[in-house]
Write a structure and sequence with these properties.
By secondary structure, the chain is of the alpha+beta class. Helices cover 49% and strands 18% of the residues. The protein contains twelve helices and twelve strands. Strands 6, 7, 8, 9, 10 and 11 form a six-stranded antiparallel beta sheet that branches. A four-stranded antiparallel beta sheet has the order 1-2-4-3.
Amino acid sequence: MQSQVHEIDPVTVELEVQVPWERVKKGLDAGYGKLQKSAKVRGFRKGKVPRNVLKQLYGRQVDGEVVATLIEEGLLAAVQEHELAVVASPEVDDLPRIESGQPLAFKAKLEVRPKVDDVVTDGLELKRPSSEVADEAVMKEIEAMREKHAEIQTPEEERPAKEGDILTIDYVVEVDGEEKPEMNATGREVELGSGRLLPEFEEGLTGKKAGESAEIRIAYDEENTGAEELKGKRALFKVEVKELREKVLPELDDEFAKDVGEYETLDELKAKVRADLEKAANERSDSAVREQVVEQLVQKNEVPVPPSLVQQQLQSMRQELAFLMQYMGQMGGNLADLGLGDEDEMAQRAENKVRAALLMGAVAKQQELKVEAEEIEAKLAEIAEQSGKHIAKVRVEYAGERRESLENKILEDKILDYLMSRATVTDAPPEAEEAGDE
């Protein structure tokens, strides 16, 4: 087979392929030979149908199958000959027709990975976010533990509801004056001050005692309802407080520390909480710096990206987003907090992800970074130790695609470590970090 390659742009090439007549004839002979064994034609015994009869009856079918096979073979041979890094299925301009004694010629367009000869890795300047843990953060975690270990009980003396109380309520609902039985509730538990109630509910229930009633009016808009049928409508909730209970937090002392874990003193508990927070803060800091490395690598290297890879990445991101939205919806989260931007911003992120992958692959090639078998084995041993599983079981679990994914992760870490070694990293003061969060 003969082939030529012409570059249309850095990520698109055109292949011209010619399949010699001898190969075309061989394909036709094989096609008709196979057909002759199975074809049933009236007036002829099975296997004895003349080729000219078969051609008259099935010529278009045989030609189509042979052309499809030869195009596939021709493209594969041409891709291997010219060492093309194809990223999408080829587009054949016009399907060729078989002409007796003539080679089969066709053209195809292919998307390919761009050639990245030299990646700029100089001048990377990174800022490491502060990983200091304030005393307030430690106490916030401790208070969360107290909340978790709180006792729920009815107050000794009857009193009005306040923040932190847990109320059991019944209510009936009217929407724009029409009763909505499907929205009614009996024995529903709500916690004042938890942030899970609409402000109107918080205000309407605060100060009520067990046995008292309240009428709570809510005007639904875009922000306070996830139900399309309620937007723009007004609802009246007729609420009866059935029970009021309060949280009694444990005393913050050594006994509390013993109750929540294997600690002898409250100071030991605080030290462990601080250590855990510092570990998490350091991991976030490391992650932020690595993200900066990738961002600056993309900014310093204008590499064209194949559109099909961008579309694949965009589709993957949409699927991930759909899952995240479903999860946050179930958890009662605010989708606006995701900060994902519009479709154009998502497409730009997809393009940057693809560009980053191409650049990091080029860095690995230039620096001859690779993953050795013993490195994978060491990582599997680490996983086994952390999970408490036998190393043999972990090896089985990390076979096939999972092993390939693990190898890619190890290689990615090596690439990032190399880029970090080329960068200038300065520590951002806590004040600058806090200002950036506001």
